[in-house]
Amino acid sequence: MLDQPPFWLLFVTFLAACFGAGATGALFPPGAWYESLKKPSWNPPNWLFPVAWTTLYLCMSASAARIAGGMTAAAGLALAMWGVQIALNTLWTPVFFGLRKMRAALVVLVLLWLSVALTMVLFWRIDWLAGLLFLPYLAWVSVACALNLRLWQLNPGAFA
Is the pLDDT of residue 160 over 70? Predict the structure, then answer.
């Protein structure tokens, strides 16, 4: 039987996946189209997005590394769900900023929210701290869903 990789190696591996997802922001930057949209008064300031995502990616990576470090049958399903949520996370930016499809991006966000919530529950059952580390992510995706919906409502002619 092989030894478990050290925590730091697992953490760096998951962090690479997170920053791969985050790289879509460089490929599909908000640009003038997003700046021209009507936004709700509670729209977060632009500087907050990279700070929030860096923090969330660190938490998500630490959480997944904790689960992967104690591989069990339950961990396999939990990590598969982690893979689903990072795939949906990666998809949202190209749909919203690349295709400018706010309605389709909202569907992606709802699926992302569900996958984050399920991942959090599965992680919590294995390691309560790993589950707790997903709570800020669920909160952020909740705000993102509300913001995406409100942007779509405020800008009906700005692509659907």
Answer: no
Token couple for 100: 């400018």
The helix (H) or strand (E) run that includes residue 68 is: helix 48-69
What's the token pair of residue 160?
Answer: 């659907």
- Centre a 10 Å sphere on the Cβ of residue 68 and count the other Cβ atoms it contains: 22
CB 7 within 8 A of CB 69: yes
**Residue 70 contacts residue 3 (beta carbons within 8 Å):** no
Cα three-residue angle 62-67-72, rounded to 5 degrees: 170
Q: Give the pTM.
A: 0.92
Q: Token pair 């190696």 is at which residue?
A: 9
Question: What tokens does 105 get?
Answer: 């991006």
Contact 131, 121 (CB under 8 A): yes
User: CA distances (Å), 144 to each of 25, 58, 106, 149, in order?
Assistant: 15, 19, 9, 8
Whose tokens are 């730091």? That residue is: 8
CA dihedral 84, 136, 19, 89 (to 10 degrees): 40
Q: What is the pLDDT of residues 19-60, one digit of tens each?
A: 999 999 889 998 899 999 999 999 999 999 999 999 999 999
